[in-house]
């Protein structure tokens, strides 16, 4: 755990220095260096944890928190690696995206500070095993994300979106605080391990509150309303990081909670599966009718959170019914799709940023023929669209195929009630997939194909610094798909 703690120190020191430095370029270079160094340090421990090892560290954090325990296990490691990857790619893309501000007198120190603190807080959330410390890190993540969203604070719609995010983030904080305090009062400790000793009767209400708190952050229906506003308002690299990993911390919270909450797994599985299917269908249907390319991608994130939660629901049903294969397929599909979505959705948001800077518009109906002017952005967007539509040979196909496999096996082996549930889940997943193909055929065709509009003749391709991070992500997506 020394490497993980060292990464925390590196990020915290770098964040403070960015507030002192005068030169924007020096701030950017320092931030990228700190993020990459911290990513390497945390990844060393995370990779070892994925091999089956578990790393723990405990320290005294004062009279208020007491002894705080850190633990890097397999679940922590998986999310830690995803967070490091997306934040690193986002930092490099953001370096290119923010060149306009780097060359001017605008002070972007607070934006860089918030980016570093968001990364630090999310890595801390992955390893903290103390409920009060977890809530503190959760609040830092919420405040940092708010600052990142309102970067263009001179725009009224940006402030409105930021306030919406701020309010809903703190609804999440309140729900989590009440839930954790209830469990701590029953167990007599703030450590997660102590919660496992509680009976289902003692923990039911607290568990529901925790689930709702994490669902707000994940953007699961009906707690999704902040997503379509925050993503278009934020700079492209922040939209990519938010959709790629920040909403996934809600998924991490749900999965972490399952490790200590005594619940009726099968009943909870049916509930999660139902909410997830509705969320997925709602998200993609809303995405299809959007004109704003970033709002379309935001609604698509709601759809993909639904797919991830369908995997979690299937895994819970497997645990409750004693079917280990369903448990494996469900949770494996959820975890793999978490990685896959982090890769292709962050890439698509970065590409939307390229389009925005080239055309100064997010309205797809004002575009057309951009493929002739921006060939690399066009090609990369096509590959990202193939991935998000779960078509081979890209990565989205693998995780959704795994989920289909689990649902069909559940239908074959379940009782009549289970078979009906599995049938509806399969139908929902088929509809989600079909609508996703319609959605991304539309966005690609309208934006990149056809005749170039007269006002788009001055459009040109973005520099390599804004294409290389996307290319790296696409290579990883192809490797997973193959």
Helix and strand layout, with pairings?
Layout: H1 2-20, H2 24-50, E1 55-60, H3 62-65, E2 67-72, H4 74-97, H5 99-102, H6 109-127, H7 131-149, H8 156-187, H9 192-195, H10 200-218, H11 227-233, H12 236-246, H13 248-258, H14 265-288, H15 293-321, H16 324-359, H17 370-373, H18 375-388, H19 395-413, H20 416-448, H21 468-481
Antiparallel strand pairs: 1-2
Helix pairs in contact: 1-2, 1-6, 2-4, 2-6, 4-6, 4-12, 4-16, 4-21, 6-7, 7-8, 8-10, 8-11, 10-13, 11-12, 11-15, 12-16, 14-15, 14-20, 15-16, 15-19, 15-20, 16-18, 16-19, 16-21, 18-20, 18-21, 19-20, 19-21
In short:
By secondary structure, the protein is an all-alpha fold. Helices cover 77% and strands 2% of the residues.
Fold and architecture overview:
It is a single chain. The longest helix has 36 residues, at 324-359. The protein has a domain at 264-482. The mean pLDDT is 89. The two termini are 33 Å apart. The relative contact order is 0.09. The chain is 77% helix and 2% strand. By secondary structure, the protein is mainly alpha-helical. It is globular, with a radius of gyration of 22 Å. It is built from 21 helices and 2 strands. The chain has a two-stranded antiparallel ribbon with strand order 1-2.
Number of continuous helical runs:
21
Number of strands: 2
**Over all CA atoms, what is the radius of gyration?**
22 Å
Mean pLDDT: 89
How would you sum up the major sheet?
Answer: 2 strands, antiparallel
Oligomer: single chain
Order of helices and strands: HHEHEHHHHHHHHHHHHHHHHHH
């Amino acid at each position: 755990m020394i490497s993980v703690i060292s990464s925390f120190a590196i990020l915290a020191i770098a964040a403070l220095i960015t507030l002192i430095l005068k030169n924007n370029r020096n701030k950017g270079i320092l931030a990228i260096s700190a993020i990459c160094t911290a990513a390497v340090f945390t990844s060393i421990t995370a990779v070892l944890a994925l091999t089956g090892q578990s790393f723990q560290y405990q320290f005294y954090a004062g009279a208020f928190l007491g002894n705080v325990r850190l633990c890097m296990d397999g679940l922590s490691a998986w999310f830690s690696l995803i967070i490091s990857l997306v934040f690193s790619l986002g930092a490099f893309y953001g370096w290119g995206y923010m060149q306009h501000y780097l060359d001017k007198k605008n002070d972007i120190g607070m934006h860089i500070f918030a980016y570093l603190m968001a990364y630090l807080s999310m890595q801390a959330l992955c390893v903290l095993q103390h409920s009060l410390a977890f809530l503190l890190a959760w609040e830092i993540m919420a405040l940092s994300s708010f600052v990142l969203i309102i970067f263009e604070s001179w725009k009224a719609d940006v402030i409105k979106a930021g306030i919406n995010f701020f309010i809903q983030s703190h609804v999440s904080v309140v729900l989590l605080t009440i839930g954790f305090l209830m469990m701590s009062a029953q167990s007599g400790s703030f450590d997660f391990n102590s919660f496992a000793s509680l009976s289902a009767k003692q923990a039911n209400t607290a568990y529901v509150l925790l689930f709702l708190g994490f669902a707000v952050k994940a953007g699961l229906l009906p707690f999704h309303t902040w997503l379509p506003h925050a993503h278009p308002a934020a700079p492209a690299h922040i939209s990519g990081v938010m959709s790629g990993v920040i909403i996934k911390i809600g998924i991490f919270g749900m999965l972490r909670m399952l490790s200590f909450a005594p619940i009726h797994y099968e009943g909870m599985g049916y509930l999660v599966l139902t909410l997830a299917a509705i969320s997925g269908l709602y998200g993609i249907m809303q995405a299809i009718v959007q004109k704003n390319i970033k709002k379309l991608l935001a609604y698509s994130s709601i759809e993909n959170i639904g797919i991830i939660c369908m995997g979690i629901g299937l895994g819970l049903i497997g645990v409750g019914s004693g079917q280990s294969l369903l448990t494996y397929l469900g949770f494996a599909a959820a975890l793999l799709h978490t990685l896959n979505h982090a890769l292709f959705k962050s890439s698509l948001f970065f590409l939307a940023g390229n389009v925005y800077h080239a055309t100064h518009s997010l309205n797809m109906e004002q575009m057309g023929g951009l493929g002739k002017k921006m060939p690399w952005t066009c090609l990369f967007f096509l590959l990202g669209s193939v991935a998000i539509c779960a078509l081979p040979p890209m990565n989205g196909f693998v995780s959704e195929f795994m989920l289909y496999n689990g649902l069909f096996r559940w239908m074959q082996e379940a009782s009549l009630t289970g078979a009906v549930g599995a049938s509806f889940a399969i139908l929902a997943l088929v509809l989600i997939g079909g609508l996703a193909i319609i959605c991304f055929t539309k966005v690609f065709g309208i934006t990149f194909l056809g005749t170039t509009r007269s006002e788009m003749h001055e459009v040109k391709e973005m520099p390599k610094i804004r294409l290389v991070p996307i290319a790296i992500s696409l290579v990883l997506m192809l490797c997973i798909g193959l």
